[in-house]
Amino acid sequence: MNLRVLILDIVHGGEILAEEYLKRGHSVDCVDVYGSAKEDTISGLEGIGASFHRKVPKGHYDILMMPVHCPDAFLDGVTYDERRSFHQAVGELSEGRSRIEVTGVKGKTSCCYLLAHILALDGRSIFLHTSRGRGEWKYGEHRIEGKASIAPTSILRLPCGHDTVIAEVSLGGSGRAELTIITNLAEDYGIAADTRKASDAKSSIFSEGKNIVPRSELDVWSKYNKKLICFGGRLELSEKTEIGKPARISIDYDGRYELELQGSYLHLQYTDTIEAVLEACHEMGIPADQVVKGLETFSGVPGRGELKHSDKGWEITDRNPGISHMSVAKTLDTLEKMGIVGDTLVVLDPVDRMVCEKMDTERIRGIVEKKGARFCLAGDDEGASADSTVTLRLIKERYR
Questions:
Q1: Which among 64, 119, 253, 359 counts the fewest CB atoms within 10 Å?
Q2: What is the per-residue pLDDT for 398?
């Protein structure tokens, strides 16, 4: 049966859904509702038989598809028999076998990396898909073969044939994975022109498999799913942590284990990540010796709390599309616990004008200065670090 399908938003994965529905013999209309689609995306859609529009065409459709963050204000003059979010469409078109999906506000990438590092120690083949890139995990590192969106529809382009696929998802998930993790909510911010909440979208990751959420947020997530596994409480810091030095920790994992984290990354910023990964590994039946070895040999995610030392002092690099006032506050809380926030210069570096315009720079500045640190934008930092022993360089990339 040939159906008329309307897909709104082709810069957050709509082009992937268009291709899938065209393969099934349906007619597809695509709309660039945000006016930011690239010409090669448009020509690619038209080349496979989709109809492209810059404004939403009025009329009746059998199926309407749009991401959950897209507001209904675009639907003036449109009627439909069935409506599907991008998440729902992905769930209907994909299988979740051997897949782990990770979403949240902060810590998604580090969670994926630490999981891959630990799971690969028993010889299993891992494919890792994150905001840093996609590719196999081999010999203790991510062999990135290219960049790709982490929108939910990217799940439809994950390869087959690996023992485990670990996918970072920007806002929600397929609802089909064998194991899902929500790292945190941090703030239940508004989406879709403030008509919905972030939790509404992120909860779409929950599947019939095992779903792991922060213990501190159980009240939030239990509204969407009653069979949840909570993480938190397995890790204890053995002593005060110092920047650039290994950290002694103990973990409760079928017994108590004492171990040491490497000093090459801001390990105190990873404690919630470690808690989530410990719970996931426990649910997957990973042996304790493998988990301990993985934690002790993990050196952090490149560009995510990465540490370097020079004669000018310490530099912490956080290169991340998810940098916001919430993530900055969390990092400064970490530096405060280490007793170095007052010696820190925060340098904010949006990679281009489009990113800069979407940032609440003054709100970030206010948070930094309230914590007692110093703030400047990239380009204004020459000489500004003279009175600081720590430079926190925040490089906000564009979302894909």
A1: 359
A2: 62
